[in-house]
Specification:
Length: 161
C-alpha cells in the first residue's frame, strides 16, 4: 500500500468507497448526521455527487470535483465532521489499536478510502451499475429501486418522501 499513488486529474469523475472501522453498521442509524456531514463538506468544497449509495457500514459514490486535488480533502472533511458529532454509544464498544488511539482516532472510519479515476463512459456506467446493485448484492432488497439510501431511489420515484 505504501507505493499507491492517487491520480489527480481535473475534469475526471472519481468513484469513492468509504468504509466504517471494523465494518461497524452505524451509517443508516446516523443517516441524518451523514447527510449533515455532506452538507458541511459541500460548504467547503465545490463538488457534485453523480451517484451515491449508503449501506450500513460503507458507502460508494461518484463525484465530480472542481479541483481534483480536493477529493481527499472532501473525504477527510466528511469523516471528521461525522466523527465529531457521532454519539459515542455507536462506537464505544469497539476496541482499536494503541497507535490509533495515540493518533486521536475514534473507531468510526477506516483510515484510508478507495478511489478510482473514471476513464470513460463505459467505466462510468459500470460504476453506476455497481453502486445501484449494491443493496441487492448484499441482500438488503430484492429490487434496486427499493433501497431508499441511494440517489437513484429519489431520482426514479419523485413522489417518494
Amino acid at each position: 500500500m505504501a507505493n499507491y499513488k492517487r491520480m489527480f486529474l481535473d475534469g475526471y469523475r472519481y468513484y469513492i468507497t468509504i468504509v466504517t472501522y471494523e465494518r461497524n453498521p452505524i451509517l443508516l442509524k446516523n443517516i441524518a448526521l451523514l447527510r449533515e456531514s455532506f452538507r458541511y463538506a459541500k460548504s467547503l468544497f465545490e463538488f457534485d455527487i453523480n451517484e451515491i449509495v449508503v449501506m450500513p457500514d460503507h458507502l460508494h459514490m461518484i463525484i465530480d470535483v472542481k479541483a481534483a486535488r480536493d477529493y481527499p480533502k472532501i473525504i477527510s472533511s466528511l469523516k471528521r465532521y461525522f466523527s465529531k458529532k457521532c454519539d459515542p454509544k455507536y462506537y464505544q464498544h469497539i476496541k482499536q489499536s494503541k497507535s490509533r488511539e495515540a493518533a486521536g482516532y475514534k473507531p468510526l472510519w477506516q483510515k484510508r478510502f478507495y478511489e478510482h479515476t473514471i476513464r470513460d463512459e463505459k467505466d462510468y456506467l459500470d460504476k453506476v451499475e455497481y453502486i445501484r446493485s449494491n443493496p441487492v448484492k448484499h441482500g438488503y432488497v430484492e429490487a434496486v429501486d427499493d433501497w431508499k439510501y441511494g440517489s437513484f431511489y429519489y431520482r426514479n420515484k419523485p413522489d417518494r418522501d
